[in-house]
Amino acid sequence: MITSNALRRGFFGGVTAALLHSALASSPVAADEDPKARAQKLFFEGLADIEAGHKQAGCTKLRESLSLFATPNTLFNVARCDEDEGRIAAALEYWQRGLSLIDAKDPRAKVAKARIDALDTRVPRLRVLSPEGQVSGAISLDGKDLGPSKLEAPLRVEPGKHVIVVRAPGREDKRYEVDLAEKERTEVVAEPGPEVVPVDVPKPPPSTNSSAQVPPPSPTPASGRRTAGFVVGGVGLLGIVAAGITGGMLVARDAQIMNDCDENGVCVKGSDGYALSQASGPLLVGNAVAWGVGIAGIGAGLALVLTAPSGKAGEARGREASIAPLAVQGGGGLRISGRF
Predict the structure, then answer these.
(1) What is the pTM of this model?
(2) Positions of E strands within 24-158
(3) N or C: which end of the chain has fewer CB atoms below 10 A?
């Protein structure tokens, strides 16, 4: 039977004793040479530190050597470091990797197989399952993403606590924690978290800037009625102006007629006075209409302005008022109807 002490001597001592003696007798290898030479130098320095009782320093150098160049002896010795430090899953992997690099008849193969058999029963197994039809996402174990090849199959993990996180678009991250002891086997169904509920963003309050444009207030019924009063009064004023103009024309015609006709106003047919007297009829009608429109317009405009209501009571009444021109025989004016 191979004991633990024999294994230690075999891999930290006897297996590499000849190589170590040869390395120490040869000239030192420069640290800046190729990675293989650097790895070899670190390997021998690590073994020397372990033989001298500086195990932590020696294991650190062996792991650095393995990162530069892998050999069976380096893998076996790093496996022993991990096993002694309690990382049995990592140690099992290194024993298996080292065994794959040597011949079956190699004396180291028997020791490596014995360690693999012993560790394989102790290493915990964790199986991560992804339910069918779930939203596609990413699943990580202890911060490392698990690809499709690592899902479903049992994974060798170290004893202790492990964290599984499921991430899926549009859903909250879901976290699973497991604590495994040696030889323990378990599985976790990694389902995504609940859907993310959108958060309503509150609308900003209305601006209190005094410089902001404020829409002008709509005109009140009273102001509309006053406006109508001014418009009607303006029409009346135009009527008065028109009446004055036509009145002046009539006065000028009358003076001409008096010059051409006798004192009784009888004009000789064919004279200028006779022609003017015959053409004065339409001008007289226009003058009368202008006076009527002017007087009626000014009166109605004043009435609208002076009687314009205020508030809602006047709104309906103001809307019912209507204004229209009115022509009568011998004159004219405006017709105003409605409730005031």
Answers:
(1) 0.51
(2) 125-129, 138-141, 144-145, 155-156
(3) N
